[in-house]
Write a structure and sequence with these properties.
alpha/beta; 8-stranded mixed sheet
């Protein structure tokens, strides 16, 4: 185990300095602060990139809460910025209006039921197709909790499998399908070639993006976690899955770390710090080649542009506790605080005694 100085060195500067990055995913277990982290990463990127788009793929959509501004499924300029945009999409519903006519939609809906995950995959492809036409210099994904994120990363292969299945059906029954549509009067509205053309177009987009996702010069994944067992387990699972999908990841943000900086010591905080330190040691042991950024647990939420900007300092400069145990200054501060508390307690005792005498 290295020294404390070594443990504090990790930041996200490497992500900010990698100009070639086009796609940045931020993900992890639910409730660890992914949205706050992705929002701050996008704010920092806006200082070094020409244009930044942050997309929430989490149905909970906390992005609007983080920035305290309402976002929709179309990119909106974030208040106070000239080059930072945000949008919120829900992959589970976006596919409803993605392909066109009622007859076509009915066919695609039936198809989606027969191929698990293809509806979300098609919606994701549509969103990526839209995003690619907008020409942002970097795109940050605020992803849903780990399970949803892993499914999102499987979309390219899901869509490819679905299209292969469709092509097989077309090759076997193409003539019959065409005759049946004319026989039942669907005519031009149910256009087999139009459907396949649309799906092929999405396939091209997804293949292109899939190639980019697997290129470490273009894509990286930032894992967000907290120093607890379940979060460590989820992070390990996520890193293994990313490796399987050939997606680069070399940054971990450990959020809600309790530092020993309370003037008056607390047994509860001491116990929590010991527990956290055990898991922090495991993080450093498992991911010794990662950039690990530790963020302090705050007494308040980080909401709004100003709060996000203020907290962003901890992403590029390792956090330093406000006091150092065992120094002259720390002991003097502790004595001063204890004296003040004793003075307040004595005053409270006097009030209670006087009240009792009157009674």
């Amino acid at each position: 185990m290295g020294s404390n100085a070594e443990l504090l060195e990790g930041t996200v500067k490497n992500v900010l300095e990698q100009d070639s990055l086009k796609w940045i995913f931020v993900g992890g277990k639910g409730g660890v602060g992914k949205t706050t982290c992705s929002s701050i990463v996008s704010i920092l990127l806006a200082t070094v990139r020409e244009s930044v788009l942050i997309i929430s793929t989490d149905p909970a959509h906390n992005l609007s809460d983080a920035f305290q501004q309402k976002f929709t499924k179309s990119p909106s300029l974030v208040n106070g910025f000239s080059n930072l945009y945000a949008m919120e999409i829900d992959p589970t519903v976006e596919h409803e209006d993605s392909l066109g006519s009622d007859a076509t939609d009915g066919f695609v809906s039936e198809l989606a039921n027969s191929i698990p995950g293809i509806d979300e995959a098609m919606s994701f492809a549509e969103m990526l197709k839209l995003v690619q036409t907008m020409d942002y210099s970097v795109i940050v994904f605020d992803t849903a909790p780990t399970g949803h994120t892993l499914r999102l990363l499987q979309f390219p292969s899901t869509l490819e499998k679905g299209l292969s299945k469709i092509m097989t059906i077309k090759n076997r029954f193409g003539g019959l399908m065409s005759q049946m549509t004319h026989l039942f009067g669907a005519g031009e509205e149910f256009n087999e070639d139009a459907i396949l053309g649309k799906l092929e177009g999405l396939k091209e987009v997804i293949e292109q993006v899939n190639t980019q996702f697997k290129d470490p010069d273009l894509t990286t994944f930032i894992c967000v976690c907290i120093p607890e067992f379940l979060s460590l387990y989820e992070t390990e699972r996520l890193v293994q899955e990313l490796t399987k999908f050939e997606i680069d990841t070399h940054n971990i943000i450990i959020n809600q770390v309790i530092y020993d900086e309370e003037v008056v010591e607390s047994k509860l905080l001491k116990a929590r710090m010991r527990m956290q330190q055990k898991y922090l040691n495991q993080f450093y042991m498992l991911y010794d080649d990662f950039n690990i950024t530790k963020l302090p647990l705050l007494p308040q939420e980080v909401c709004g542009i100003e709060a996000l900007k203020e907290f962003s300092h901890n992403f590029i400069c390792p956090y330093k506790p406000s006091i150092t145990r065992g120094t002259l200054e720390e002991v003097e501060q502790r004595v001063s605080t204890l004296r003040e508390q004793l003075k307040n307690a004595e005053a409270e005792l006097d009030r209670l005694k006087k009240g009792k005498q009157k009674a």
